[in-house]
Amino acid sequence: MNSQIINIALPKGRLGEKVLKMFEDSGFSCEEIHEPNTRKLIFKNPEAGVCYFWVKPSDVAIYVERGAADIGVAGKDILLEYSPDVYELLDLNIGKCRMCVAAKKDFRDSHDKTLKVATKFPAIAGEYYQSKSRNIDIIKLNGSIELAPILGLSDVIVDIVETGTTLKENNLEVYETIVPISARLIANKASTKFKQEKIAVLVSEIQKRI
Ligand code: PRP
Questions:
Q1: CA separation for the pair 176, 126 (Å, rounded)
Q2: Are 98 and 86 contacting, i.e. CB atoms less than 8 angstroms apart?
Q3: Rounded distance from Cα 50 to ligand 1 centre (Å)
Q4: Interstrand relation of 71-75 and 183-187 (parallel, antiparallel or unpaired)
Q5: Residue 1 has pLDDT above 50, yes or no
Q6: Which atom of ligand 1 is nearest to 144's Cα?
Q7: CA–CA dist 102, 131 (Å, integer)
Q8: What is the pLDDT of residue 38?
Q9: 3 C-alpha vs ligand 1 centroid, how far in Å?
Q10: C-alpha distances in Å from residue 136, one per residue of 48, 92, 127, 131, 155
Q11: Ligand 1: distance of its center to the CA of 184 in Å?
Q12: What sign has the CA pseudo-torsion 12, 15, 18, 20?
């Protein structure tokens, strides 16, 4: 069973670096991945039984759901938004932030008209306001969401708040918190059967470092 290789999708960026360190500290190191200026996309360490690749954070769940990766690390925001058909194995307790409704400081929801909500997360926003029976008009954007209420494109935004700096510097503030977010270890459903032993070892080693 030790000859099995686990394919691991890592989220590119600051969170991914932390995740990689967690994996390497857990005994799944990979020298190749630290080569400076490499253009390689896939990094293997057959001795440790791992193969890593960096993908866009929002794409990790797709790789895992379709079995191109056995496991991966994705933010709870992505899991809530896209509901991929994967197993969520661990809360890694890193990449912590919260999904919030934010607005201009003087904003008060008057409830007498449809609320205009700009967001990268239409499913999360839709579900949240549905639970409050509030009529909304979702404006789907792909970035720089904070601009929307400033320019009058929307009344509020539903977005991730980490340090709160982006809101503060743009005279916006949190109006309501929807849900706390953190990075989750996810697994392909078939892989958890066919590579059960290897994945179980990896999960238990990583769990010790959370
Ligand atoms: C996220 C989010 C906010 C910002 C919040 O954007 O959409 O803009 O981080 O972080 P803060 O509370 O620490 O200021 P991201 O950096 O992912 O870029 P994006 O605008 O392209 O989505």
A1: 15
A2: no
A3: 31
A4: antiparallel
A5: no
A6: 20
A7: 18
A8: 87
A9: 41
A10: 50, 33, 11, 12, 10
A11: 19
A12: negative
The pair of three-digit structure tokens given for residue 80, joined into one six-digit string = 């809530």
Q: Whose CA is nearest to atom 1 of ligand 1?
A: 160
Position 110 scores a pLDDT of 86
Give pLDDT, residue 168. 97
Model-level pTM?
0.94
In order, the DSSP letters of 40-74 are -SEEEETTTTEEEEEE-GGGHHHHHHTTSSSEEEE
Q: Point out the ligand 1 atom lying closest to the alpha carbon of residue 169.
A: 14
Residue range 10-64, pLDDT digits in tens: 999 989 999 999 999 999 999 999 999 888 999 999 999 999 999 999 999 999 9
Q: What would the pLDDT profile of 84-96 be if each residue is shown by its tens digit? A: 999 999 999 999 9
Q: What spacing in Å lies between the alpha carbon of 161 and ligand 1's midpoint?
A: 7
CA dihedral 81, 85, 87, 93 (to 10 degrees): -10
Q: Given a cut of 80, is residue 3 above it in pLDDT?
A: no
Please list every protein residue whose CB sits less than 6 Å from any atom of ligand 1: 143-146, 159-166
